[in-house]
Amino acid sequence: MFWLEKRQWCQREIVCTGAQDDAEEVACSPGFQVKQYQVEYDGGFLKDQPLLKVVFDDCAENQDVSFEVSHPDFLIDEDLNLVPRRDVIDSGAVLFVHGLNAHADDMAQVDIMGAPPRSPQTLREIVGLGDITPYRTKRSLLVPPMFVPENQRAPFPRSIGKVISYDMKDDHYFRLTGKGADQDPKGVFSINRRTGEVAVSRALDREAIAFYHLQVSTTDMSGNLVEGPVDLDVYIIDQNDNRPIFKESRYSGEVLEGSPSGTTVMTMTALDADDPNTDNAVLRYIILRQSPEKPSPNMFYIDPERGDIITVISPSQLDRETLPTTQYELEIVAKDMAGSEVGLTGTATATITITDRNDHAPEFTHSLFQASVDEGSTGVVVNLTVDDRDDPATGGFRAMYSIINGDPNQSFEIHTNPDNNEGMLSVVKPLDYESSMFHTLMIRVENEDPLVPDVIYGPSSTATVYIAVQDVNEGPVFFPDPLMVTKWENIPVGSFVAMLNATDPDFRQIQSVRYGVLRDPAGWLSVNPVKGMVNTTATLDRESPHVHNNRYSAVFMATDNGNPPATGTGTLIITLQDENDNAPYVVPSVARMCEDAKEVNVAVIGARDKDIHPNTDPFKIELGKQLGLEKTWKISRINNTHSQIMLLHSLQRANYNVPLVLTDSGFPPLTNNTELKVQVCTCKKNRMDCNGAVTPVTDLLLLLSLLTLSILCL
């Protein structure tokens, strides 16, 4: 590489040894004739082994030329070779060479190809010269970047590089400032005031601080700034001192049974705190151990770089129902240094669960189930059992039952028992032995989840249930029920009401039936125990409180002579037709008026009747047939049910009983001779005071008083 650079330089400007004989000589430019060099980095450099030869010409035979290298472990020997002073592994990515004598003062840059990436700074960027030309203005203070391996051992301090100033005078000093020098963390780095050699005072940890940014300047003896400050960047070279660490000690993943080979199950990720730009943090993953090892110790593979765990086993072998277990544990190792033997390791456990898919149809344990049930009863009659090899915790195991034949009347239902997956067949409508002694049902079982495409429900997914109905002695049944009849109220005691009809449903048995009264609220009825004839034992009264909406209800029972006897009940409803057997009565029974006839002297009264139309209104309300009564009171009709009574002249404050005659419109009509109590009260300012009224005055006394008064007036 050096000779390539030299040839390129020769073609540009200067006549070199070995160049074409006919090349014209040009004016000499003092200094390095090649400004940039390259050398390959292969893990380090051996002591005293030349790396390259620099080309320097001061145009005066190179007398008394001195060279300084920015890295203290390198030098330029008398043959102009760049040579390590010792075995060097921390060379950094760039070196700077300073050549100086009375005729020349120049810098060159050596790039270490393949060394760990460092600062992208070049010689031009550091010295601030821009493009290097044969004649240029230079900075006198050269501060190259420096590199320090972490975890160095004593003794300290250790030299890490040198700052060069070609304009350094005896009364000038180097000064180092910034974090790591005179700022926290203080005292990590120091500089020799006279020579510019920079040293580190203790072992460093790259994972704590990976980079220090300092400033170098020169001052006079009084501390006055002469030049600078110039940035000094110190990079901490990583050592492989951190093991890979998994975020968790145990990881969990799942893979569906039957998955194709190459299916990604999960990803394992470990972290390494070392420099990610070096092999110290480049991880490789391996599976150290699989448990259990059957059916193959290599069921899974881990991508060494990405950490993806994928399946290797064939889909047919990845069968949850035939594998020795549904969980496999993998011990995963992450190793840094790209997996080399010297790499550090970290471990974690991956637990992989083989999850179920519905690849097995449920099958009945028997093709025929039998049960018996008493007629007239309901509830569970038989439990149907099935086998299913799928995971009990999934819908691929849970069963759903259905009746597909044999139940036209929907007398049965079947439900799944969530505790044991059995089918509970129940009678929901009572069965009748006399109608059918046997029932044959066809039951189908399916899963909640659909089967995988290549699996179907077979003949074992259906079963037959044979149910025998047991005969039970049933009570006689009334027909019709209820029995409806219509009768007049007040018919003679002993009158015929109805004929009950109860039959025994157990027609396969010969049994007799006897009747009885179970509930007769008013005690009006009796029944012939053999014939079922119902007669009256008392007067039927439509107005009785036991009659509602003109209907009277009684309950009868019929008992057979079976073993044990059975009883049935039936209802008799009698609709009672009304007779005009209730006279009307006055409402209200008390009326109020003012003693002064000029005030309120009218009251509204009405008539009521317990009978129903046409035996009620229109009512006739009249004064009683007493002499002179019409001179004090007057009754006027308002409508079919109400009239008004009027006081014709003033009366003293008292209670009066006024005779009335009320007549309904029945056929024949009924009349009621009754009295209306009238309170004559004191009325003032629209207020009526009826307190302290004297004893009621009968209409006869009132009549006598009126007659006496009329005689005296004659």
Automatic annotation (TrEMBL):
<dbReference type="GO" id="GO:0016339">
    <property type="term" value="P:calcium-dependent cell-cell adhesion via plasma membrane cell adhesion molecules"/>
</dbReference>
<feature type="domain" description="Cadherin">
    <location>
        <begin position="148"/>
        <end position="246"/>
    </location>
</feature>
<dbReference type="GO" id="GO:0005509">
    <property type="term" value="F:calcium ion binding"/>
</dbReference>
<keyword id="KW-0336">GPI-anchor</keyword>
<keyword id="KW-0130">Cell adhesion</keyword>
<keyword id="KW-0449">Lipoprotein</keyword>
<keyword id="KW-0472">Membrane</keyword>
<keyword id="KW-0325">Glycoprotein</keyword>
<dbReference type="GO" id="GO:0000902">
    <property type="term" value="P:cell morphogenesis"/>
</dbReference>
<dbReference type="GO" id="GO:0045296">
    <property type="term" value="F:cadherin binding"/>
</dbReference>
<dbReference type="GO" id="GO:0055113">
    <property type="term" value="P:epiboly involved in gastrulation with mouth forming second"/>
</dbReference>
<dbReference type="GO" id="GO:0005912">
    <property type="term" value="C:adherens junction"/>
</dbReference>
<keyword id="KW-0479">Metal-binding</keyword>
<keyword id="KW-1003">Cell membrane</keyword>
<feature type="domain" description="Cadherin">
    <location>
        <begin position="585"/>
        <end position="698"/>
    </location>
</feature>
<dbReference type="GO" id="GO:0007498">
    <property type="term" value="P:mesoderm development"/>
</dbReference>
<comment type="function">
    <text>Cadherins are calcium-dependent cell adhesion proteins. They preferentially interact with themselves in a homophilic manner in connecting cells; cadherins may thus contribute to the sorting of heterogeneous cell types. May act as a negative regulator of neural cell growth.</text>
</comment>
<dbReference type="InterPro" id="IPR015919">
    <property type="entry name" value="Cadherin-like_sf"/>
</dbReference>
<dbReference type="InterPro" id="IPR039808">
    <property type="entry name" value="Cadherin"/>
</dbReference>
<dbReference type="GO" id="GO:0044331">
    <property type="term" value="P:cell-cell adhesion mediated by cadherin"/>
</dbReference>
<feature type="domain" description="Cadherin">
    <location>
        <begin position="479"/>
        <end position="586"/>
    </location>
</feature>
<dbReference type="GO" id="GO:0060027">
    <property type="term" value="P:convergent extension involved in gastrulation"/>
</dbReference>
<keyword id="KW-0106">Calcium</keyword>
<dbReference type="GO" id="GO:0007043">
    <property type="term" value="P:cell-cell junction assembly"/>
</dbReference>
<dbReference type="GO" id="GO:0001841">
    <property type="term" value="P:neural tube formation"/>
</dbReference>
<dbReference type="GO" id="GO:0001764">
    <property type="term" value="P:neuron migration"/>
</dbReference>
<keyword id="KW-0165">Cleavage on pair of basic residues</keyword>
<comment type="subunit">
    <text>By contrast to classical cadherins, homodimerization in trans is not mediated by cadherin EC1 domain strand-swapping, but instead through a homophilic adhesive interface which joins two elongated EC1-EC2 domains through a region near their Ca2+-binding sites to form a tetrahedral, X-like shape.</text>
</comment>
<keyword id="KW-0963">Cytoplasm</keyword>
<dbReference type="GO" id="GO:0007156">
    <property type="term" value="P:homophilic cell adhesion via plasma membrane adhesion molecules"/>
</dbReference>
<dbReference type="GO" id="GO:0016342">
    <property type="term" value="C:catenin complex"/>
</dbReference>
<keyword id="KW-0732">Signal</keyword>
<dbReference type="Pfam" id="PF08758">
    <property type="entry name" value="Cadherin_pro"/>
</dbReference>
<protein>
    <recommendedName>
        <fullName>Cadherin-13</fullName>
    </recommendedName>
</protein>
<dbReference type="GO" id="GO:0042074">
    <property type="term" value="P:cell migration involved in gastrulation"/>
</dbReference>
<keyword id="KW-0677">Repeat</keyword>
<feature type="domain" description="Cadherin">
    <location>
        <begin position="247"/>
        <end position="364"/>
    </location>
</feature>
<dbReference type="GO" id="GO:0008013">
    <property type="term" value="F:beta-catenin binding"/>
</dbReference>
<dbReference type="Pfam" id="PF00028">
    <property type="entry name" value="Cadherin"/>
</dbReference>
<dbReference type="GO" id="GO:0007398">
    <property type="term" value="P:ectoderm development"/>
</dbReference>
<feature type="domain" description="Cadherin">
    <location>
        <begin position="365"/>
        <end position="478"/>
    </location>
</feature>
<dbReference type="InterPro" id="IPR020894">
    <property type="entry name" value="Cadherin_CS"/>
</dbReference>
